[in-house]
Structure formats: C-alpha cells, structure tokens
Amino acid sequence: MTARPDLRRARPRTRQRGQAVLLTVVSLALGLGAVFYSFFGTARQTIASDKITQDALAQAKAGLIGYAAGDSNRPGSLPCPDTDNDGSAESPIPTNCPSYIGRLPWRTLGLPDLRDGSGEPLWYAVSSEFARNPSCGSSCPLNSDTKGMFVITGTSPATDIIAVVFAAGQSVGTQDRSAANQNTVAHFLEGGNETGIGTSTFVTGIATDAFNDRLLAVNGADVMTPVERRAAREILTLLQSYKTASSDGGGPLCDCYPWADISDGSSNNGYDTGRVPLLGALPHTWGSLGITVPTWLTTNRWWWVFFYAIGGPVSESQSGSYLTVNGTYGTSVVLITTGPAGTGRPITSWAGDSDWPTYVDDSSNSDMGTWFDTPSSTAYARDRLYTL
Question: Is residue 22 part of a domain?
C-alpha cells in the first residue's frame, strides 16, 4: 500500500516561500518609491527655485526700466551699483561710478530685497554711459543714439546691452561667501562673469557643477523706447504751446509753429522739414513766448534724433500745403521718433538731408516731402509717428 503525502506538513513551507516573495516585492516597491520620491522631490525643488530666480530677475529688470524712464534729470540713466551691500546705489565720483558692477541697488530702485532661488541677493552691472552724474550735462548726452557697451556671449548672445542683472546661485568651486567676501564679485560670479566688467563681455551657459550664473539683460530698446515716448510727449506739448502763444489775433505774432532746424538745434528761416529747434526757435524765440524748454531735452540732444515737419499754412509764411499722413491731407505737424541707434548711428557730423535715411526707416518719411506713412515696422524698437 502506497503512503499518501502529508499535505498538512507541506503547506507551511509554501506559505513561508510566498511570504518571502511578498516581502521582497514590498521591499523593492518601497525602495523604488524612495528613489522616485527623491527624484521628483528634487525636481520640484529645482522648478520652485528656478521660478523664484526668474521672478526676481524680471522684477529687477522692470525696476531698472522704470527708474530710467522716470529720471527727472537725465531720463534713460541708471543708478550706480551697490558696493557695500546696503541696498543703495553708490554716488558718482565725480561723474563716474566707483564701480560698474556690484549688488543690485534695490532700495534706490524702490524694490524689495530681491533674492534668487538659493537665497542670494542679485548682482548688477551697468554700462558707463548710462550711469553718470547728471552734472556732466551736454558733455555726456544720453538719447536714443547712445548705445550700450556690453556684449553677452554663450547660449544667449546679445549686443547693445545697457545693464545686466545676475543671479549668482549657490557657491561653486572654491568660492567663499563668508562675511569678509560679501562684496567680492569672484566669490559669487564665475565662468568669465567675475571679470566681465573689464572686457564689457558677460557669459551665459548651461548650469554645471562649475557654473550656475543666471543673467537677464537690459538693452537699448528696453530703456530708450519709453524714454523716447516721454520726449515726444514733451516736444509735442512745447510745439502746441508755441502755436497757441504766437496766435494773437492778427497782430505782430506769427500764429505758427517754429521753423525746422537743419544743423545745430536752432531754427533755420524758411525750412519746414528737419529737426525740432529746441535750442532756439524762429520766428519767435521760446523765451519771448514765455515757454521754457526742459533742460534735459537740450543737454541730452534730443533735438538731434527726432524728425520734424510742418505744413505751409501753419508756418510763418502762411502759404503752401498741409501734410498728408496715410493718404489723408490736412496734418499740421509730423514728429517722428527714430528708435534706438542701429547701424550707422550716431552721425556726429551731419552732411545734409541725405543722412536722414540712417535715422528714419521708411523712404516715404525720409525724403523731405509732405507725404508721410505710419512706420511699417511693428517691432518694439521702431520709428513712431506723431501728429498735431
């Protein structure tokens, strides 16, 4: 008779093997879960840190543009960097900044104490032509002909850069950010950015163990476009005030707009196209009509970079034709802002009407005629046409 196997003794071993497999699966699942949690947790932290950095850089750039556009003495100018980490810009000595790279002067800009995603304060470099004491006056004019001197190389190259804001990130290599080194550029920026002020060249690149600077540039269009608009509004107000003040009901005053300038900022009799005569108007002077031209418009040579035309019936001669804009006849005054300096600018010695195409983009607007069109470009840094 064959003996039957004792199934009751075999079951415990089967259960033990099954429990061991289950424990192995659970352990693997927990291990993989820990790996995934660590990976995605780190990824979330990196994304959050990057967002803080991006927001801080963007806020700093907006603050710089607002400061430049609203400056009352030298619109377009920027503050000197902060070199003692107190949040305030250093004063020029006598007209130049003590340093053109340092901490972002957040107090001066009216900003909070901006920090990047690693908790570090922001750094800032500014092109020297845009950070001067306004006392330099006409010896250092600042207008849309003024170009930024900085160049950015690497993954995001750019030229005509006025200022750069840096997020230093965490320390790399041998950087020592102890209290003694808080204002030493090389302990915060690297990859060439720590010495870039000397060559006017800064570097962008992919983050590595040896490089993690983040840069945001401020270019000529960012700053000069809003300043141009401000200058245009001021000039249109001056021109309208001139016309109103010279209208005395048929007396000795001209009831007109001033003649245009063709060379030096002052009116030339009989010229109805050229520049706005901010330095001296004819047939009546600004002063004789009780009009004061803002000093910042003259010392910064804004008359040099705007095109101006008047219709014959509103000139001293009271003859000729009005101007035609976009096919419609009857405009009295055209003022064209010429955008930030491009190739060929600035022209420092004006040869004559043939130089206007270097400043005015559309041929229909630079031919010294009486027909004008809305500038064809839709770029932010473009010519803009204003009328009275």
Answer: no
Mean pLDDT across 281-289:
96
Q: Whole-angstrom Cα distance, residue 175 to residue 184?
A: 10
Least-confidence region, from 112-126, 200-214, 254-268, 348-362: 348-362
Question: Domain of 331?
Answer: 224-387
Helices (H), the chain: 7-70, 106-109, 196-199, 220-245, 295-299, 356-359, 363-366
Q: Do 206 and 229 have their domain in common?
A: no
Using CA atoms in the order 319, 323, 324, 328, what is the torsion angle rounded to 10 degrees? -80
Distances in Å between the alpha carbon of 292 and those of 36, 140, 379?
70, 22, 34
Amino acid identity for residue 140 in this structure: C
In a domain, 293, yes or no: yes
Q: Hey, what amino acid is at 237?
A: T
Q: What is the pTM of this model?
A: 0.86
Of 105, 58, 61, 60, the C-alpha closest to 81 is 105
Q: How many domains does the structure of the chain reveal?
A: 2
Q: Distance between CA atoms of 310 and 323, rounded to whole angstroms?
A: 7
